[in-house]
Design a protein that fits this description.
about 350 residues, alpha+beta, outer membrane lipoprotein receptor (LolB), chain A, Glutaredoxin, 2 domains, eight-stranded antiparallel β-sheet, eight-stranded mixed β-sheet, 8 helices, 16 strands, about 35% strand, Thioredoxin-like_sf, Thioredoxin_ResA/DsbE_sf, antioxidant activity
Length: about 350
């Protein structure tokens, strides 16, 4: 009995000997596990100024990595997330209320293998017990402040994690995140709770389907049609009309500072614009962020992308942009020559520009 008590005491002491920062890093490593896993739970989000709450299922999974080769470590997992069975619940209002539009962004339900990145501060807030695979397990509650893509604190609302002391899984996450496309709208309150975790298992079918799907879509239904006219302000407040560029090849790059693929693709797009500027190719970024934020981010990260502000999604809706990054190439005749959603290979973009420049 003494030996069993001693082992239990050592295990508990070790679990709590980790600093909050170390515990957060340990949790991040769990989601990089190469053994394959599936973690299931439920989420709720309450849109601001609404008596309706949206409930949904959320699943995090990663496939098993290939065995390590001599001299090479095993590749960390790249987890994916899926949201399903979402429905609204009225929390007590007697008034008939229109269902709010809620964007279930991967930024809200994903990113588990990066939870220890861009951290400004970590505070331990206490402990609680939560169920995992039918057993109550002790968890430590951490409150984490992050910095944004602008290298500024995200604040004022921190992200709170309840992390299982032994397995280092996040069993609860609460945070504020906008459910609206508009950056000026107030954020909604989210809670994600996970109660089932299975490791050392093959990838679920939905994850295989997601990973096998192409990340690049060509919007063929737009090709050959006249590009709709629009007027947007650039980051200096000057109005720019598409019709003012008639007779030139125009490349529109829809992007946001919160979109990693957009940022990854940006240097290539800027280089294409610079290379073909003398041949009457005009490049404009179309940003969903507030003008001051776009301007500051471009300056801080030394990017030269000329940018128009579409914070109200007027042009995005006009061109039915489903996701970003999106690139739209308009010919000298004002018709759309190419329309890509996703990251475009440089050779494809350059070939399309050259084709559009032909007499």
């Amino acid at each position: 009995m003494r030996r069993a008590f001693l082992l239990f005491f050592i295990a508990v002491s070790y679990a709590h000997s980790q600093s909050p920062q170390d515990l957060l890093r340990s949790a991040e490593e769990v989601y990089k596990s190469p053994d394959g896993y599936e973690i299931k739970g439920n989420g709720v989000v309450r849109p601001p100024n609404s008596s309706l709450q949206m409930n949904f299922e959320v699943i995090i999974a990663a496939k098993q990595s290939s065995p390590a080769l001599p001299g090479k470590p095993q590749t960390p997992a790249a987890p994916g997330s899926m949201v399903a069975d979402f429905h609204f619940v009225n929390l007590g209002s007697d008034k008939a209320e229109k269902l709010p539009q809620v964007m279930l962004s991967n930024s809200a339900t994903g990113g588990w293998d990066r939870i220890a990145e861009n951290v400004v501060a970590v505070r331990e807030m206490g402990s609680e017990e939560l169920p995992l695979n039918g057993v109550a397990v002790p968890c430590r509650i951490l409150q984490v402040d992050y910095k944004s893509a602008n290298d500024e604190p995200v604040g004022p609302d921190a992200v709170t994690y309840s992390i299982c002391s032994e397995k280092h899984l996040v069993l609860k996450k609460t945070f504020a995140y906008s459910t609206s496309r508009r950056a000026t709208d107030p954020p909604a309150q989210w809670t994600l709770v996970f109660d089932s975790a299975q490791f050392n298992r093959p990838a679920p079918e939905w994850l295989i389907n997601v990973e096998s799907a192409s990340s690049l879509t060509i919007r063929k239904e737009w090709i050959g049609h006249a590009a709709p006219e629009f007027a947007l302000s650039d980051l200096s407040g000057m109005s720019v009309k598409l019709s003012s560029m008639q007779g030139k090849v125009v490349l529109l790059d829809f992007w946001s500072i919160t979109c990693p693929p957009c940022i990854r693709e940006m240097p290539m797009v800027e280089a294409m614009g610079e290379s073909y500027r003398a041949k009457n190719v005009v490049l404009w970024g179309v940003s969903f962020d507030l003008p001051d934020k776009s301007k500051k981010w471009l300056l801080q990260h030394q990017h030269s992308l000329p940018t128009l502000s579409d914070t109200d999604f007027v042009v995005s809706d006009l061109y039915t942009v489903h996701g970003i990054p999106s690139l739209i190439l308009v010919g000298r005749d004002g018709k759309i020559k190419n329309y890509w959603e996703g990251e475009v290979p440089q050779a494809d973009l350059e070939g399309a520009i050259r084709q559009a420049l032909k007499p």
